[in-house]
Design brief:
heterodimer, A: alpha/beta, 10 helices, B: MetI-like fold, binds adenosine-5'-diphosphate, binds magnesium ion
């Protein structure tokens, strides 16, 4: 098992036959997924198909029942000692997570800290960085997401879109190799979706490797290198967005995309606002 | 109602549209009757305090409050024991709460048994037991458990003990009081801390762990500071209750305590009531101090939750908009 292609450069994320059950219900039924360095992969699929669970498995917020996940060649959650897996302790798992940033649907900013404090918390507490330097870096990151002027604000004083951008800055502060986004715009008012997608788009342009669970079809179409369509805990179909979104093969993909298009046509304001933001960034 | 400071562009400026409301307020007759009744009662009480000869403010109450043994009892027995037992109670209580929430059954059950035991025992009885603990354990040594087995096996004469205490001496001291009241307090604080920890959204812990924090660090840096918002108000209650419970120290027995000292003066001078008033006044002062401390702690841990204003936020927004 352990000799699974260690020699040729492994993709940054290499997931093989990942299975996961909750109370006897299998939620992930053997997911395979490779994500190369610098790639943006969008995970699509109906609610309950296991997208969130898979993302959480990658950084060990859930333990998997079967299969293996490697990130940057490191087996996640276990130590492989001559073919026998040993579960890693809390500290070792925490160390593995440092290189993986995650953004949540509900932002999960630390409400008792200002925007700056949110961003510098992990560099100082986890990596032991000097506080003054971390503060400088934090301000730079906040500037990068367009929030330099709100650096002293507490999360409760920020709009949803601003909170999510702080959350992105907070994740970036650990200089991750991989960013996971779990429906980062689903909890936002439609007019705030564009500002968050714009930041993510810039991040993709800068070469960040990203796995993005999203229902924003135009983002998937324009930014993703590959879209993966999941349903019922399995990958149904995947490929370049031009192929999967425009010309889906599997009936379930077709049905899902049709539903999404229907919603968009019904005046889903998100896409309407996205357009100017897109223009700004891709002239 | 104060005159409104609505901005000029408010809609009320338009002709033949309803403008500012200047209505006659409702007359609250019942409230005014209540105010008069309260005023009369306060006047009667003040009259009683000032004119009743049994009070003896100047010759017993005030002098008793500042006598040396009373002050010593106040500082050592009441204030130090309150602070010490609350510190012990909070620290141990948080540990017990975390144990209670542990997936490990032994830890969570141990924590439950602790809470069950110490909540059931009256503090007076607990202090009495600690004062008499010497009956079963004349000495308490700190070292390697069951070291006598090893010394017997190896034929050694020395023991592996580092520190020894005379139980009788410890049990009836300030330390015994802090220990007894602190152990009891931990049982209550555990429940308070558990409620506080559970009040913090799970997403907070997950976000912290996703950033690479260990469980312990996520608890210390992210979860507990937020839990404090829920923990502080009932802890203030507990601290004030603890001030009063230090009068139970006599069960140890320990007389270096505010009420015991004042009562001693009372029985010596046959002025029982005036010294009870002296005790009341001191307890009122202590209660006020702890309430002030609680207020500042609430401000401190309410950061980000709207309890304090952060710099860089313009409060103008709420006032200026929609001026009616
Ligand atoms: N912690 C959990 N306990 C039990 N069931 C869960 C848990 N998390 C997710 N599930 C279930 O797993 C399935 C997949 O959930 P999820 O990964 O959140 O899907 P998606 O993100 O695609 O909407 C759902 O049926 C959900 O109810
Ligand atoms: Mg989800």
């Amino acid at each position: 098992m352990s000799e699974t292609a260690q020699a040729p450069p492994m993709p940054l994320v290499h997931a093989v036959n990942v299975t996961k059950s909750f109370h006897g219900t299998e939620v992930l039924k053997g997911i395979d997924m490779d994500v190369d360095r610098g790639q943006v992969v969008c995970l699509l699929g109906p609610s309950g198909s296991g997208k969130t669970t898979f993302l959480r498995c990658i950084n060990q917020l859930e333990t998997i029942d079967g299969g293996r996940i490697w990130v940057d060649g490191v087996l996640m959650g276990y130590d492989d000692r001559a073919g026998r897996l040993h579960r890693l302790g809390d500290k070792a798992i925490a160390a593995q997570r440092r290189d993986i940033g995650m953004c949540f649907q509900r932002f999960n900013l630390f409400p008792h800290m200002t925007a700056t404090e949110n961003v510098l918390e992990a560099p100082v507490q986890v990596r032991g960085e000097n506080k003054a330097q971390a503060r400088k870096d934090a301000l730079e990151l906040l500037e990068q997401v367009g929030l330099a002027d709100r650096c002293h604000a507490y999360p409760a004083q920020l709009s949803g879109g601003q909170q999510q951008r702080v959350a992105i800055a907070r994740a970036l502060a650990m200089k991750p190799k991989l960013m996971l986004f779990d429906e980062p715009t689903s909890a936002l008012d439609p007019e705030l979706v564009g500002e968050v997608l714009a930041v993510m788009r810039e991040l993709a342009d800068d070469g960040m490797t990203m796995i993005v669970v999203t229902h924003e079809m135009s983002f998937a179409r324009e930014v993703a290198d590959r879209v993966v369509f999941m349903d019922g805990g399995v990958v149904i179909e995947q490929g370049p967005p031009a192929v999967v979104i425009s010309d889906p093969q599997h009936p379930r993909t077709k049905a899902f995309l049709q539903r999404m298009r229907h919603e968009e046509a019904e005046g889903h304001a998100g896409s309407a606002v996205e357009v100017p933001a897109d223009d700004e960034l891709t002239p | 109602m104060s005159p409104s400071e609505a901005p000029a562009e408010a809609p009320s400026a338009a002709p033949d549209r309803p403008g500012l409301i200047d209505a006659v307020p409702v007359r609250h007759v019942g409230r005014w009757v209540a105010v008069v009744v309260i005023a009369v009662l306060v006047a009667m009480f003040a009259h009683l305090l000032l004119t009743n000869a049994a009070f003896r403010w100047t010759d017993v109450t005030f002098p008793a409050m500042v006598q040396a043994p009373v002050i010593e009892g106040l500082i050592r027995g009441t204030i130090v024991v309150t602070i010490g037992s609350m510190l012990l109670g909070v620290a141990l209580g948080v540990v017990i709460a975390i144990m209670r929430l542990s997936p490990n059954k032994v830890l969570s059950y141990t924590s439950w048994v602790y809470t069950w035991f110490f909540r059931a025992i009256p503090r007076y009885v607990l202090l009495f037991i600690i004062g008499n603990l010497a009956v079963v354990l004349p000495r308490i040594d700190i070292g390697i458990p069951f070291d006598f087995i090893a010394t017997d096996l190896l034929g050694l004469s020395s023991s592996f003990r580092l520190l020894g205490f005379d139980t009788q001496q410890i049990g009836t001291s300030i330390a015994g009081g802090i220990l007894g009241l602190g152990l009891s307090e931990a049982a209550y604080m555990a429940e308070i801390a558990r409620a506080g920890i559970l009040s913090v959204d799970r997403g907070q812990d997950e976000a912290a762990q996703a950033l690479g924090m260990s469980r312990g660090k996520a608890m210390r840096r992210i979860v507990l500071p937020q839990a404090m918002r829920v923990i502080v108000p009932p802890t203030g209650n507990e601290a004030i209750a603890m001030v009063k419970d230090t009068s139970l120290l006599i069960a140890l027995p320990l007389g270096t305590e505010l009420f015991f000292q004042l009562r001693a003066i009372g029985s010596r001078t046959f002025a029982v009531f005036p010294v009870a008033v002296a005790a009341t006044l001191w307890y009122l002062v202590l209660g006020s101090v702890f309430m002030a401390v609680q207020y500042f702690l609430e401000q401190r841990f309410g950061r980000g939750f709207g309890a304090t204003k952060a710099p860089g936020v313009q409060p103008v927004v709420a006032v200026g908009q929609g001026g009616r």
